[in-house]
Amino acid sequence: MNTRQETDLVKLSNQTLAELPEDILRPTYDRTVLTPGIVHIGLGNFHRGHQAWYLHSLMQKGLAHDWAIVGAGVRAGDAAQRERLAAQDFLTTLIALDPAKTTAEVVGSMIDFVPVEESNAALIAQMADPAIRIVGLTVTESGYYIDPATKGFNAEHPDIQHDAKKPDTPVTAFGAMIAALKQRRAAGSGPFTCMCCDNLQGNGAILRQTVVSLARLSDPYLADWINNNASFPNSMVDCIVPATGPNELALVRSLGVDDACPVTHETFRQWVIEDDFCAGRPDWDLVGATFTADVHDFEAMKIRVLNGGHQIIANAGELLSIETIAGCMANDDIRALFKKVASEEILPHLKAVPGMEPHAYVDLISQRFSNARIVDTTRRVAFDGSSRHPGFLIPSIQDGLAKGTPVDGLALVEAIWARMCAGIREDGSEIAPNDPNWDALQPLAQEARENPALWLKQVKYYGTLADQARFADAFAKWLGMIWAEGTTATICAYLADAS
Questions:
Q1: Confidence (pTM)
Q2: What is the CATH number of domain 6-292?
Q3: Order of strands, edge to edge, in the sheet holding 193-196?
Q4: For domain 296-496, which architecture applies?
């Protein structure tokens, strides 16, 4: 695409769509006739580059015009995102970064954004509208109030306690959903589908657990009604979508568009959804999504190889001051670490899925991680390891111990995370806090330098792995070596081990 001067920029809006450069695709449907059918909570880049794109693609075919998205957020910071999107009529420029070329498309499937209020009254009213048939969420893996040790519902969290005592003025997205469902039950308008789009194994079941358990704290009869009538489909979502920063803003401007919140993304997308919708759904399968009765094998492969793989390479890259995921993959040792751990310690516990054999999937993920056009920062990917390691990596460790397959590489990955949480890179620079539990993790990581067993005694993350000698001994060996000889030398020692 041609680079354009600042004076040629087109401010993104409904009125200026026809003025956009010819090589930028834009909605061919009349946005003024769209009506809402979906509320989506968590209007970050991923949703706009993934689920919103699938719906937009349907609308381009003349379909699903009564399923438009109304955005929502429950955090104070979401108000700024609402203002940015409202100023451009809720349009988003998606920029696909293929290694060979750049293409751009304006997505118009979102038509509104609920005002962000402390009481969430506007959000509750919007979800109570019978026209809303699906409520989706992308609120990060750590946002579902799960007890890390038991995997059950954390009823003691202050936010949950607030919503249990004051269900009409909730502070959580889940409390707002319950309040809206209560109004719908009273009005006889029926429930909506609750659709989780976060990277959690069995994400629909986890969302059901959170919503029903919270409702039960204040209204057991309502909890039973939700559990028996609402639906919570499991799903697997996949597309690498970096955060938007100065480079992305400069890129969209170079294409001739003044967009305050563009989204860059890779060209690969996948969405596998359990076909369980209590109030209807768009025909997303007509634009590439997969509806199935069993999402588990798809999500296991993606979560363990892609999301787990992200943690394998990002923690090492952080210690070695490598700024991007593609930069990590350009490092021969980190790339080899990913390939060996994924092939020997993760794949033995995965099944093939239609159209994809596990070894081919590792090769695909390696190629996607290596796309230098995707400027996905190591820091972003390494964020919230205290949720991502238990969710993405530790299940493979547990399977390996149970089945007698290797776990040495996964022990090394956990040792690298422990070393990263000490907060100092190998060049002496500081790693800024990068986890909701950083204040607890950092001092413990520093103590674990002399006593590695302390790290594994974090039962809420590791369960009983501290008592598993095969894993605990390997972890202690690798952590000691990392501190003594460095990350690269330790990775090379693992790679040289042919066992």
A1: 0.90
A2: 3.40.50.720
A3: 110-113, 68-72, 36-41, 134-137, 193-196
A4: Orthogonal Bundle (1.10)
